[in-house]
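User: Watch each token:
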Amino acid sequence: MSELTYLDWREFEDLYYALDDQNARGDAEQILRLRDWFIGLCSFDPLTSLPESSNLSLVLQNIASNRVEEKELSQLNDRFSKIIQQVDLAVNEILFNPREKMVREHRFVPVPKVKHVDSKTIQWLSRQPGRNLREKMASSSKILAVVKNTSLDTSENRLFKHFLLRIERVFLARIETQSLVAEQPLYEELLSRIQYWLAQPDVKGIGYWRSLSPNNVLLRDKHYRKIWSSWQELRKLDETLLLDSKNSDQQLSTYIFWKILAYLSQHKEVKLVEQPILFKYDQLEITTVALIEGRVYLTGQPPHKLIIRLNNNLVRVQLGKKILQIKMVSRTIDVIDHSGTALASYMKSFSKVERLVAEVNRLLMGHEPNSLQQTTINKLVGHGSVNVEIGSLNTRIKTAGKKSYATPLRFLRQFWQHRDENYPVDCSLSTALQLGHDTETITCNHLWSNNNDSMLSVSIDSYVHSLKNLIGARPLTYLVPDYVNELGTEQLRRSLNLAFSDARPLPMSIASLLLWQRGKSFEKTDIRDGDLFFILDSSADNLYMIPVVAKIQDSYKKRLPEMKGVIWERHPPLRISGSSSMELVEKSLNKELFSAVEGLLSFDEVFEAVGSLSIVSNDGKWLDWPKSLKEKLTDIAKSNQLIKGEFLAESRRHAVSFDRVRMLSLTRTVKKPKWLEPWAWLNKSGSLVDCEDVIQNNMHFVDDGIFWRDHLPQLSTRTVVDGIERDFFFVKDVPPIQPVRGKEISIELDEKFVLSSGQNYYELPLFLGTSKERTKHSIRLESQAFPLTKNTECLLELSYTYGADQPYKLIFIPNERVNAEFRRVEARWTTSGNKAEVSSPTYPRIYAWEDFKNYSDGVKREPQDLLDWLEREFEKIVAIRDFVFSGDNGKRITINTRGSEWFTDRNGSRCCKFQHPRYGEIFIHQSNYEDFDSCQYEISLDIVRSNKGNWQARSITEAGLLPKESKYVFSNSYRFPMLTVWNNGNSLSDQLVPQKFKELAQQAVKAATQLLFNRSQREDLPFEIERELQQFLCYLHGDMPIEMANRLLAEIDKGDIRGSLAYQLPYALGTVHADWQKSLMKILMKLVGNRGLSASKALDILSIAAWREPYFIFGFKQKQVEHILDSLINALQFDNDTLKISDKAKPLRWNSLLRKLELLLALIRLRDSDEPEVSKMFTLESKTVNAVTKIVEEINTNHGAKLNKQLAQARAVKSRVKFELNKPDTMKNTPDILYALRLYLTGETGANLITISGVVDDA
């Protein structure tokens, strides 16, 4: 074979002429066949004409099925034919209707025909003989005038003509080539049109194209723009021919590389990691985003690694320990093993590649592919209705009268992030998926989860496009899980309704019962009117039962004897206890494999994926499915037992005896429960799409061709009434409707809705079902009449259309038409979508030590020196210790009055004057005794100076005792500064603590410790003083002495946190850094898991602690947060239920409710957690947020007004967290904390404007 670089080719036409040259034919044919092969793999962007990205499995499938070496030369696509294909339509359009321009010319025109004159006409007349116009025109019947004509001589047409002339030359070269003679009719028609147009006189008048830059027409006109972009390619044909000639070895190596990979991929044992494929058109290069990796699973052997690389025209393939190199030599292609031994050699020719690839396969695999790994997606012929079941791993299709089958079309898409580009990947033919940070994977779990992600929308459109290509635009019935609400499938329905002539959703529960009706089991069943069927299904997160009631229609019995006249009535799905699909998957797989597939594949899909789809982690590790996984999955499903009571309760609600109840499962996650009779368990027979036969064979015998009726789920929103949000139902207790595609059904609404004044628009959240699950949808009202000047009461018109893009239509009409500000407004059903930035509560200001010298809380006007205040309190504690230990602290002394003379004053009270060795005379009066006894000689007293300067005795008690008043004066004076200073983790170990303050504090701590833990002295200490000293030490948290910490641990170990312990623990926890604090927290978390009062008290403790240390809540692990939330939701539900029963709740109950709401507010701050699994729990779409939102709204509805009244009137009911917020007047009866929680939990506008101004501690 001659070297292509030495061929004397100057123009692209020489490539065609070379086909008739025996010496150059091989080189030319190789260029053409390689280019045809490459073009066949590409799909081109219609705007840019550049190749779009593809994916590995699809490219390999196309290579395996494309037999380019068997094509006739005339059938090959090359660079020129590709240009013609992309520009053909534009050329024909311009040939028929080219752009023109107006041209002004001066000609001699008969006077009667003159329409336009100008200055040039006047100048010509002035030169004619004659004294006036008449005389000047008398000499001739014509004058020089302006004539307007159209011309094709525009810049864009000059390029177009130049473009056609170049095309004509190439066309003629192809036609003159004998080897391409078979294609002459193909180009004759276009060539003849071009030649005819070029021969036109107007076209001949078009000038030469000399401009290098395009004008606006060439850049913006849709047809001329095509000409411009194609001209750019056409002018490079000569240059690219030389490039192809120069890079012949490189291009042939590329072809060999991909042919080998495609051949190996046909083996069922070979799994290759899916990834995007990028094409470089000019260079004929195919590149991947990542290195190509694979595994080969041979029977009885461990998996072998498959690596294939292309580098500098050298193809290197490694399978396990086998290594082959395919090397280009001067005239041959050699196959060499790892030792350098040549195993095979072939002439360097395109025609020899097939034999080369087969030999490489034999050396590596040892056998030909037994069965193709990928199956070509063949189009479905015919025009009948099709039943489709969408799946992540396959799409099942059924036409009436034919056997159902699974196509390789999958609702499985990936989006790869690479160099700031997002590449979509269709995984329908994939054998291995890499899951990780750089890839976003979309499956049916996303499709059925009410998700509104933009990638999901792209995936839906791509899937529907592929489905339409597969089955054509025929009538379509598609199966939908019952647990998916209609509002959540809007994107899917819109795309299907656009693509197909009649797209009808069919609930899977109805499909399963129709399928059962065609079986022998149904024939033997004694079915009666009102029999209840529970259809079981599982979503990723929940287990559901769908109640379906059999209704026997007498009119159908004769028409449908084989179906026994049964019409089904479907009720909304209900969540039931039991493990969900994803929970069972987690139990079945190891942690690493589960973390990869979590949220992607359901339990049933994991069952199907075993052996057909491999998983690769982000770091390239292959995560093999465990051996005997299918058996393990089956065993785990058996353990997923259902609770009989839930089914009994639902059957009682339908007034159906349980012996008339049957159950059928749509999922492998649920097996027959032990408590159910065998006859009552219906086995699913066949694929659900097989119900198409039942539908098509019997639809003519039922009204509108519908075999069931639907009970619409409750649909409600929240609206403000008397300052409190309450439920407003759009759909509730509506009679069953016949779901006829396209038929609008009116729904009566008696209750009126009030639109409040002053709002630019109205956006109302939607709740679905009896559990009022918050949907991701809302209704939005917009009108030029908004904002309204007054509250407007509206009548509502609601209708429902089955299968429509948006099934509900809601119109607001003013009740009073006279002087109404608007006539009617139709609600727009919007998707709230994912709010990228959701606000979380801020933590109040943290004060530094220097701030306490001049502290102001914003309530008291005068700043205070808290450190000086506390120093005085520390001195009091030391003084108490000195008195208790010695009986004399300099301010309170103990004396013996025996021998002192007592006398009676003028009021009849007893007095004496006692001579003290240090103070001198001390006046003692009966009125200063707490309990006077003249025979009590040993007494303790406070000495104070009178106005006259004499010493007097005050607060006289039995010797060694403290006065009663000191118990209360101490507690009221030290708590505020202690709670304020020892807050937010402040400690005596901080560097900025003033030295004097630190020393006095340490003395006080030592004194309190001695008083509490010196047994001989503790007995004389009053209970109130002992309790206050304990509280004082607990306020110190990290500075607390170990004696007090041990006491707390001993007390909490008893499991009873009532009494003083409930007031001490919240402050002792502090930052939870010390070992004893961690031990306290560990025990406290156990108590949180209990039910009843102990759990409630534990939550109250956590609530107080959470607002005393900014990082307190961030110390919890994921499991702990889940634990707290579960207990908190139960406690809030208990409070909500019990407060409804009790008309007069005590302040203690209201305070406990407030503590739990404050704890919830603190937990929402975990949105800012560095742990992704923790922060994800508090996103707007999470189950947690939905659950707490529901209970908070119930509490607001049931108790919001009462709580607000208590906060306003009762001093004993206080909220610790103080807010600065802009609460509208319409929410005047809603407590601040419930209003703030509502905004944070729903993500509504205004949450980011809330400021937590402070926390009031009142221990």
The chain has 40 helices and 48 strands. The first strand starts at residue 54 and ends at 55. The CA atoms of residues 716 and 730 lie 5 Å apart.
